[in-house]
Amino acid sequence: MGKTKKIARATLPLGIGKVLKRLHYPLDVILLCVRWYVAYSLSLRNLEEMMAERGFEVDHSSVHRWVIKLVPLFEKAFRRHKRPVGRSCRMDETYVKVKGQWKFLYRAVDKEGNTVDFLLRAHRDKAAARRYFEKAIDQNGEPETITVDKSGANLAALEALNAGRATPIRIRQNKYLNNLVEQDHRAIKRIIKPMMGFKNFRCARIILSGIETMHMIRKGQLKDGGVARTAATQFYSLMA
């Protein structure tokens, strides 16, 4: 299977090993399909055809099942080794179609363009924005400054968070300062375009977390990634 890293099932961490034990395909095929799906603009049927060309009969539904089972483990492993982000960030939300309806992917990057965090929510309101900020702070520490657009919901959420703080987070509302995160949305939207929308919220949340994780790896946000290590190598290292 080309340059896919060979990993023995017996050496896998317990959680990942338990999941893979029930997946009766060569391990390198499973990992390659999962990585390609979250890294490139490919549909499940594209991957089915690509595996057939390599002599493996893999149904597209099997690939989807592998992604749903393994991506949460990859994201968890990545978060243990994620580089710290800057204390000034730009936050914005973008649209994602789930079961024919628009949902909202909240995202933020620091001033260097590194992803701070992300969260898919069903609604675009104060409660959704606050939940995103709480998650981002819990995972990455408290920022000094957050830049948002003119959304009243985002401002209200930040003001509610600041109400209980001795040192409030500085809030900037400026559409043009948020160009950095708006440009970063494109990398995510480009990957999900061939997927033609998601079938349900849970699958959307998991797949998006895989796409975001791969995007952060490409941006060098994995500790000890090393300049000589490819994004693929770093992805497979999360299995070790």
Give me some keywords for this one.
Nucleotidyltransferase, domain 5, 2 domains, alpha/beta, globular, single chain, 9 helices, 240 residues
Terminal Cα span: 19 Å
Number of helices: 9
Strand content: 15-25%
Radius of gyration: 19 Å
CATH topology of the largest domain: Nucleotidyltransferase, domain 5
What is the quaternary state of this protein?
A: single chain
Strand order of the largest sheet: 3-2-1-4-5
Largest sheet: 5 strands, mixed
Helix fraction by DSSP (H/I, runs of at least 4): 40-55%
CATH first level of the largest domain: Alpha Beta
Overall residue-averaged pLDDT value: 89
CATH architecture of the largest domain: 2-Layer Sandwich
Could you please describe the fold and organization of this structure?
The chain has 240 residues and is of the alpha/beta class. The protein folds into two domains: 9-81 and 222-237, no CATH class; 88-194, Nucleotidyltransferase, domain 5, CATH 3.30.420.10. It is built from nine helices and five strands. The chain has helices at residues 14-21, 27-39, 44-53, 60-80, 126-140, 152-162, 179-192, 201-218, 231-237, and strands at 88-98, 101-110, 115-121, 145-148, 170-173. The chain has a five-stranded mixed β-sheet, sandwiched between helices. Strand 1 (88-98) and strand 2 form a beta hairpin. Helix 2 packs across helix 4, helix 3 (44-53) crosses helix 4 (60-80) and helix 5 packs across helix 6. The longest helix has 21 residues, at 60-80. The radius of gyration is 19 Å and the shape is globular.
